C-alpha cells in the first residue's frame, strides 16, 4: 500500500518568515494530494490541494508544489503569522483511499 | 450553515462499557469516515461508508462497529473489545472518492 512520509515533525519560524513542509509518497498511482491544518482540540481543515495533472497551486500565502517523478509534494507558507501555528497534515490519495502523513507542528514566533 | 457535527466533544467511559459517538452531516455527502488520532501519529482509518446501508472496515476496525441507516448519520460504537480506546476520534465526509474531506471537530474519548 501507499506510504506517506512527512518532514519535519516540528518546525519553528519567526513571524514573517516562510515555512516549508515536505511529504513523499510511494505509490505512483496516487493522484490527489490535499493538505490539512489542525488547530488544538479541533478537527483538521482542508487548506489547499493539488491533483496529479498540476505542478503547482497557490492560494494567497499558501502554495503547494508536486513533483510526480520524485514522488514528493510540499506545502509553502509565506509571510507567516502567529495564527498559522497549528499541526499540518499531508495526504496522498490512491483510488478511494486517503493516506495521511504523521503531521508537522508549526510554531510561528511573534 | 452546512457542516459536520460530532458529539459529544468529551466522553468518559468505564472499562467494559460500550459507547457510541455521534456524527451528523448536512452537506449531502455520500461518503463518510471515522478516523482515530493518537499523539504523534497520523490519522488511522477505522471504518468508511460509501452509501447508505453499506460500510467497509478500515485499517484498525477491531473493537469498533458502525451503522449507516441514513445518509446524514454515521455513528461509531467503541466496544469493550477495543483494548486501548482512549483517543481523539474524527468523523469526516466527502462528496466523492477523490475530493477533500470535511472533518468534524472531534470527540475525545477517555477510558477511566
Beta-strand content estimate of chain B: over 45%
Name the poorly predicted regions of chain B: none
| Helix and strand run of chain B | EEEEEEEEEEE
The backbone outline of chain A, from C-alpha atoms, is globular
Instruction: Give the tally of β-strands of chain B.
Output: 11
* Overall strand count of chain A: 11
Helical residue percent band of chain A: under 10%
Description of the molecule:
- The complex is a heterodimer of chains A (110) and B (112).
- Chain A is mostly beta strands.
- In chain A, 0% of the residues lie in helices and 57% in strands.
- In chain A, the strands form two sheets. In chain A, strands 2, 4, 5, 9, 10 and 11 form a six-stranded mixed sheet that branches. A five-stranded antiparallel sheet of chain A has the order 1-3-8-7-6, with no helix packed on it.
- Chain A is globular, with a radius of gyration of 13 Å.
- Chain B has strands spanning 4-7, 10-13, 19-25, 31-37, 43-49, 56-57, 64-66, 76-78, 87-94, 102-103, 107-111.
- In chain B, strands 2, 4, 5, 6, 9, 10 and 11 form a seven-stranded mixed sheet that branches. A four-stranded antiparallel sheet of chain B has the order 1-3-8-7, with no helix packed on it.
- Chains A and B meet through strand 4, strand 5 and strand 10 of A and strand 10 of B.
Task: Give a brief description.
The complex is a heterodimer of chains A (110) and B (112). With 110 residues, chain A is mainly β.
